[in-house]
Amino acid sequence: MAAHQQKKPSEERKHKSTQNDTQTSQVQWGRAWEVDWFSLASILFLLMFAPLIVYYFVMSCDQYQCSLTDPLIDLLTGSRRLSDIWDKTPTLTYRAVGIYTLWVSFQVFLYVFIPDFCHKFLPGYVGGVQEGAVTPAGVVNKYEINGLQAWIITHVLWFANAYYFHCFSPTIIFDNWIPLLWCANILGYAVSTFAMIKGYFFPTNARDCKFTGNFFYDYMMGIEFNPRIGKWFDFKLFFNGRPGIVAWTLINLSYAAKQQELYGQVTNSMILLNVLQGIYVLDYFWNEAWYLKTIDICHDHFGWYLGWGDCVWLPYLYTLQGLYLVYHPVQLCTANAIGILMLGLVGYYIFRMTNHQKDLFRRTDGNCKIWGKKPEYIECSYMAADGAKYYSKLLTSGFWGWARHFNYTGDLMGSLAYCLTCGFEHILPYFYIVYMTILLTHRCIRDEHRCFSKYGKDWKRYTAAVPYRLIPHVF
User: Fold this and answer.
1) Which SS3 state, helix, strand or coil, does residue 128 take?
2) Are 309 and 423 in contact (CB under 8 A)?
3) d(CA 471, CA 469)
4) Residue 242, C-beta contacts closer than 8 angstroms, at least 6 positions apart
5) 392 bridge partner residues
6) What pLDDT digit, counting tens, does each position of 112-148 carry?
7) 237: nearest Cα among 316, 145, 105, 312
């Protein structure tokens, strides 16, 4: 988001003490304290149907060659019953439980017990112990940033096995895809339920908890802001990046291996998809410290939305293009391949440079140049629950002068490129761009509502200076 708190060093922060009571804390930014009927209806819909949507997509590929309409036609015409589809669905297996347990345990081990060493020899990489943004209660948490290291170790072991040790087949993920889905659901629901119980009975920071009184909303959107176990295991940071995003590139590699096994070759569309999504994943881990200042960490509480979403929704629906290409291998002509590659790279450039401008502006407290000029900004103030007054600077130069969320525009261009690798025979691969458009548009609106609640009249000044959200002169 463009409006991101520009936290000054602690010795430079301007603040004043005020009375710290319940009324003060309830005006802070973050998720809602009260639930309207539309929000509750949306929450109930997602809780009931999101798991079914994931199952439907995966089942459609497994039983209907990725057709989204054929299952419905079969059910409506009476050719098949729901029980027939369910009976053909692979069940939970001990093998899948073992694979998933080992996978998650390994990622926990890498996260908790292996301090980052990449920042010691990779120029420009920010790893090791880093501070997050100020929470609504005025707390500044510390994080061990070692995601890039975990990704490297994991993939080195993957390739070492594929080319040397041969302990398991590179197609192991695809071959156990639906049984692993049940494992991911179990973990997603377990961690979400644990987080809710923890928020009620032993929160990490009680002042950063929010209770609406509505069980379903609190379960989905979370109670605790930063639930932790011990000093370093932060639920939000771990589940946001590990195990789902580390697995993203492994899942695509497993799809490529399956394509090689079935057809004797890996198509250029599969290679292109692996490259483009690999760039996105590596970008996430290279900039993991920067992600401490994004909406997922800065504003969202940890509930089912993040817990289940990171365990199930992300790895299963963000990788649909690779799954589709296993069933429908597409060999792109050179012109199309180059066009898709350029679209993806341009989208990534916009996404990265937009975020880089904001990060540079934040790190230097505005003492930098953007596009060769001293940046323009609007200074805002906000109150934390501890009664302190903080100041932020909202950038209005560079890409941030074009639109308030121009980084999302680049993200959407990359998302469209992923989908285009699959051709146009089926709609299933295009779910991702439809979903991302809805998600990022909703994030724009949700983020701006929070920023208005946080900054008040200063936010109105900012939106007057930068009137467009995503596309200049359009939206």
Assistant:
1) strand
2) no
3) 6
4) 107, 110, 111, 147, 150
5) 380
6) 999 999 999 999 899 999 988 888 778 888 999 999 9
7) 145
Residue 244 corresponds to which amino acid?
Answer: G
Which backbone phi and psi does 296 adopt, to 5 degrees?
Answer: -60, -40
CB-side exposure of 335: number of CA atoms within 13 Å?
A: 0
Asked if residues 359 and 6 have their Cβ atoms less than 8 Å apart, the reply is no
d(CA 6, CA 391): 7
Query: What DSSP character marks residue 309?
Result: I
Whether this prediction's pTM lies above 0.90 is answered by: no
Residue 451: both structure tokens together? 């920023």
Q: Which of 257, 251, 259, 276 is nearest to 419 (CA)?
A: 276
> Alpha helix locations (H) across 309-333?
314-317, 320-327
Residue burial 260-297, b: 16+ Cβ < 10 Å; e: rest: eeeeeebbbbbebbbebbeebbebbbbbbbbbbbbebb
**CA-to-CA distance for 4 and 468, rounded, in angstroms?**
17
Percent helix, percent strand, percent coil in the chain, to nearest 5? 60, 5, 30
**Backbone Cα Rg of the chain:** 23
Residues shown for the chain:
475
Strand partners, 382: 390
Phi, psi of 385 (to 5 degrees): -70, -20
With H, G, I as helix, E, B as strand and everything else as coil, classify residue 311.
Answer: helix
What single-letter DSSP state applies at residue 421?
Answer: T
Separation of CA 90 from chain center:
28
What is the pLDDT averaged over residues 237-261? 95
Chain-centroid distance of CA 383 in Å reads 28
End-to-end CA distance of the chain: 15
Residue-level pLDDT at 454: 81
If one counts every other C-beta atom within 10 angstroms of the C-beta of residue 71, the result is 17
Q: Is there a cis peptide before residue 243, judged by omega within 30 degrees of 0?
A: yes
- DSSP assigned state of 376: P
Paired tokens of 78: 């009476």
